[in-house]
Automatic annotation (TrEMBL):
This is Na/Pi cotransporter family protein. NCBIfam families: Na_Pi_symport (NF037997). It is a multi-pass membrane protein. GO terms for molecular function: sodium:phosphate symporter activity. The lineage of its organism: Bacteria, Pseudomonadati, Spirochaetota, Spirochaetia, Spirochaetales.
Amino acid sequence: MDFVDALTLLGGVALFLFGMTLMGDALKLVAGNKLELILYRLSGTPIKGILLGTGVTAVIQSSSATSVMVVGFVNSGMMKINQAISIIMGAIIGTSVTGWIISLSDISGGGGILSLFSTEVLSAITAIIGIYLRMFNKERNKQHIGDILLGFSILMFGMKSMSSSVSDLRNSEVFINLLTKFTNPFLGILIGLIFTTIIQSASAAIGILQALSATGAITFEIALPIIMGIAIGAAVPVLLSAFGATVEGKRTAVSYLVVDFLGSLIFSILFYSLNFFFHFSFMSTPLRSVNIALINTVFRVAIVLILMPSINIIENIISMLIKDEAVSSEAELDEINSLEERFISYPPLAVENSKLAIRKMGELALKNIYDALDLLVLSYSDDGYKEVERIENIIDKYEDKIGTYLTKVAVRELPSDLNRSVTKFLHTLTDYERISDHALNLAQSAKEIKDKNITFTSDAIREIRNITGALKRILAMVVEAFNNNDIELAYKIEPLEEIIDELCIKMKANHIARLTAGSCTLLNGYIYNDMVGDFERISDHCSNIAATMIEMEGGVLGIHTYTNDIKSRHTHNYEENYRKFKNEFNLMTT
């Protein structure tokens, strides 16, 4: 092999990798960007996990990508290790599909209808159709189909370049002598492992082995150990992805290595033991590209069948290899600490991950308001105040981290439903953070009342107790509506918000009357007015969250046109709900 051949080989590898990536990414987009969520939601049993892992990996053409996703699932708490191992087993099988695509290169020109399936003709046809769909169509889906065809064409062209660059090696004694050393299984496994580790792709490694088969020098005896080494080496990218992951995430990454290593070990012991006794005649048979694809698939299916009944044992082995770490003292931060950067490349997963974090944020905001109101109307304590302050700081971290995370997701190409979700989540997390700000304001008012020994009239206390009940109700409703995406419940927020507004107006009027009558001091009045302002703002933010939910359900976010519409036309049982809340939270009189 001269310099030009070596350069052609490297160029073929580069084209092969690019074509495989382009085809896999486009296939994923054509599938509706839902593969990741399907993988997450439907992997309940080992059989389902294996089938789903196989299917998804066959589509995206990368067992490493599937496994990295699974590491993210476990790392974020969305999936258990037991489920993850079964999906990884499926990914190990699914990645062998690429080898079958590559084996089309075995069909050469010649005559008859078979010539239509040759590498040259297939590459040309798919490239022509692909570039037409890519350049002359405005529909995204057709453009992505064009990318699939272009990716396939580039992959096949790269494969052809690799095969042609090594074709002269069939007459090289140095090359033949080197290959005979690979008949030692341990050396073959080591070479396959090192090579796959370097190029970071098992499919590409198999492709290069298939290209070398064009020399006629690759026999079964040479190919099998290299294929086993390639399988083990495919775990390296997954292991690298686990840096910075939780203990569970690291265990999931290691499970890929454990499954491939144990599977290869057991398979090699069984196979070479049988060969020792029966001396298989096919060991010295030269292989073609399609034979290597078949061996690769059979080997991968075999190790999964061998290890499938032992998923629990594998989990125990991994748990022994990677010990538990100390748990963080602030469990409330678990949700944002589990926002997976790995999912940014898989927007449906990133949005799902964000939703779980915002749910937790809403529950924390609800708790903080409840605690702050209790400091006002029940009893004040310094510990209670510090708890409100602590949760407020945590919620600030939620807003910052989720907002940054969603912004990274938003810059990617997203389907309309995910765009709506991202918009809704960004608006909602801002309102939750503002609600928690008002919780801290109320706690500070309670502290000032305690420190300055301020007392309110019995009428003022009754008013505060009444409106705090309404505030607790509207907050509980909006958190439940968001968590369950309950649009009907969201429609009930605006009537209650209107009641709270009227209660605030009445409280201000009654306060002025008490000031005029001299039953309330000016200092009391300042604190009272501040509290009423916080009450009103809290209900406004609840209204914002409900309005955003309703508007985004319709696909368009206006300046809360829904609130104006429901008030002016009193739709969606507005009057009925308004009367119900009015009776429950009586409008006070002096």
